[in-house]
Amino acid sequence: MKTTTALLLGALCVAVTASAATPEEAAKLKSELTPLGAEKAGNKDGSIPAWTGGYTTPIPGDKAGGRRGDPFASEKPVLTITSKNMDQYAAKLTDGVKSMLKKYPDTYKLDVYPTYRTAAAPDWVYENTFKNATRAKTAKGGDAVVGAYAGIPFPLPKTGAEVMWNGLLYWRGANWKFHVNQYLITASGGHVLSTEGVGDQQSPYYLKDVSPDKWGGEYWMIRLINTGPPIRAGEAVVGRENVDPDKTQSWVYLTGQRRVRKLPDACCDTPTPATAGVMSFDELEVWTGRIDRFDWKIVGKQEIYVPYNSNKFLQPKKDAEVLLPGEHHIASDKVRWELHRVWVVEASLRNGKRHQAPKNRYYVDEDTWMPVLGDRWDGKGQLWKTLWRLPVVMPDLPATVGLTFGYYDLLSGAGYVANVFNQSNDQYSIMPAYKDSVFTPDAMAGESIR
Description:
The protein has 6 helices and 18 strands. With 450 residues, it is α+β, with helices and mostly antiparallel strands. It has a single domain (79-125, 163-448), classed as Lipoprotein localisation LolA/LolB/LppX (outer membrane lipoprotein receptor (LolB), chain A), CATH 2.50.20.10. Strands 5, 6, 7, 8, 9, 10, 11, 12, 13, 14, 15, 16, 17 and 18 form a 14-stranded antiparallel beta sheet that branches. The relative contact order is 0.18. The model is unreliable at 1-16 (pLDDT under 50).
């Protein structure tokens, strides 16, 4: 028995591939760094201000469980970047954004506003982040996480994999509900409703009243029931993501078959039913995938223009106001861009693995750890897709949370826009804890039958 135990412990040590921070390093989270690990100071010229606690003031117009207001509604852009002046700002633009400016010079632009560092979280999330700094580690070649709970796992990241895990486990609340529409952008600039649905989501990783020793490793659960369009009404998907991806499970209910099927590979470049198969699993929210498909490299930190504090996008009450006829992207004048520091992480396809996009680059906001922009190259080395996400201020959590997201295909002109809330009176409602049974195939089948 002693020999067996020793072998198991040895195997675990081999499996753990990254070491945690030292107590001296972790102490920075209570001095020059924010509690979540960003640089507290602003930049040299003041265009990025210091972090002073985030945005926690109630927003005029916010309605609990309903529509959300815009705390910056009275502001005007301080700068507009177009195809004509983009060269002046090229150092602060991603390859994907520059390609969009060139491809759609008459409609695509960046309205840049003053920068606000709105990211915030409850004190208990800050304290757990501090604890995670010295106890969390990656395992299975970076593909799994051990020792983390209820906070950013790696606030002092040493590897690209750790940065991406922070993005998967960023603070967005524990339980929420929404009604959304999702649209395919055709190569000709048409907009086709692919999904109208009701979503319930829960992050067991952030359930405050669950002790870490009783947490089973699941960090994100979703149940999406389609209410339209008519051809897809009644379809549903349930997913349960785990910090050990070998334990991740997903199921789909198809009305034509009247049965639940377990998805064999809810990962990576496999098309996801949640977007009618238009987006792949690891394109959701810019990045939702397995670490072990790629080798990850931290390029460094960079100041770039990113979508941020995008409550403005939620204010129009018709989807047609944010998806204009003939345009291959969301309405430029409804998107707020700001200058922020981001972690730049590159992903190169690992030897022996397969993927449609063998090279990727991600831009991860230092304050929230959300991947806010991403670029993907195809097997020929062509810049193929640019991915994006709109962070929104939610002082009721408090948090800055990514809502609407999607991609633009730079080769075909097609794209996808997920989580459009404009015609919804339910824009990310904070909910009490769900029962675990809500996120099961049996419950999904019961809800979906039509």
